[in-house]
Design a protein that fits this description.
This protein is mainly β. It has one domain. It contains no helices and 3 strands. A 3-stranded antiparallel β-sheet has the order 1-2-3, with no helix packed on it. A hairpin with a 5-residue loop joins strand 1 and strand 2. It is elongated and about 55 Å long. About 0% of the residues are buried. Bound molecules: zinc ion.
């Protein structure tokens, strides 16, 4: 079999209990990915 090229299908964004942003995606073959973005920059200062 040739190499399978994953096609990442966007599942959307979620927010963890810790307030991090989680990007979810999957491939039709069943593979899944989750990428976490830390959003802990704090409140912007004036
Ligand atoms: Zn795949």
């Amino acid at each position: 079999m040739g190499e399978h090229v994953h096609v990442r299908i966007w599942d959307g964004l979620s927010v963890s209990d810790g307030g991090d942003l989680i990007e979810l995606s999957h491939c039709r073959c069943g593979a899944t990915w989750s990428k976490t973005y830390r959003v802990d920059e704090g409140a912007p200062e004036d």
